[in-house]
């Protein structure tokens, strides 16, 4: 084990369309996978509506509690896109059309097409760094430890790829999955609890899912120390093998 | 319009496996769709890890702010299933094996198979009503305005079906979708903002998505008053038709 401090993160999804169910979020899973892959500990997710006071409150709560905050949604050209203004308000900084962002929009739009609405996408809080958008050019931005990204999954993914190299990362959390199949959780839960106590430096979880043919249970052991992980994995495999008899 | 108070809700998803990305949540979308269909205004979602202090804090924040709180996950038989104990702690009530819940488990398990781990699934906070689980019998429960449900989507859905008739519902939010197709958001954003001001009793949003052939934009108008909704819809359709030329 190591004393390296853990790097933590939260996600804030901004959008009435997610809360109404009309759009099913895909970004949470993408960012969660990314964090796990690079050793960032995703600790919380919130989804809030397109309302400035709600966005400001969530941004300020989450940027204080975690190393990084990733937001998605609300940075387009329409009146309901209020994320940039809300993040500026959360930080108490001004916001205006940013020449760097305007130049990016001009890569896609003719000057005569850069109307007031499109220029909204160049409104960037003072002090922010831009996050390039290779797909539709309108950038995201980083202000302090907050990364503001698009809601369209393909664009969010491209922005995440861009910011990835700039992120401080920690020791990766490694994991092993032990397939318990249709072995009922109730048959191994007692022994598994004892193994969790015996292996205090790893985290052991049991995750049921349902298939056409019934329950399919998985035991997952996670941790940063490979040796401790292997020891726990071995004990869990022995348990499952013994119970399968 | 009406003065009927709106019925609000939040969702709390409990589970390390969602935050790690290993499991992709499906319950948020299901509950969001349900709320929209019955006239409950889903206002917030949080995802937190399997840690009692985090669950307690989120339960107490969300049950205070909204009419209903729906939780998913963490009610199985293994040591990492701590939702019931955490909800009891949040309410400051005791928790113990509930004879009604034990009877439900005995519908599925022989008495000699009802070991200590399985009996964990019958631990219910004092004062709670049970939510039947037709699939694997282990019940969820309602305590005050908090509904505690399973994380396995099929079981969550069945529990949601069971609690549905007990929920107070509001006026349904009706919606119309106007397909803007590949008409760029930036071409209609200014006019749409003006329509949003002209139709203050409805909510107008513009939602881009990407397809193989480029952007596919949708304008969605939502509201509880059918006449106001139709008027806004008509104006937006006229706008899109005019711009499509």
From TrEMBL, chains A, B:
What InterPro entries does the record tag this protein with?
A: CinA, FLAD1_M, MoaB/Mog-like_dom_sf, MoaB/Mog_dom
Q: Where is the signal peptide?
A: none
Occurrences of domain MoaB/Mog (ranges): 10-170
Please give one Pfam family short name: MoCF_biosynth
Source taxon at top rank: Bacteria
Matches recorded under SUPFAM superfamilies: Molybdenum cofactor biosynthesis proteins (SSF53218)
Q: Which PANTHER family match?
A: NICOTINAMIDE-NUCLEOTIDE AMIDOHYDROLASE PNCC, NMN AMIDOHYDROLASE-LIKE PROTEIN YFAY
Q: What is this protein called?
A: Molybdenum cofactor synthesis domain-containing protein
Q: Which organism is it from?
A: Methylobacterium gossipiicola
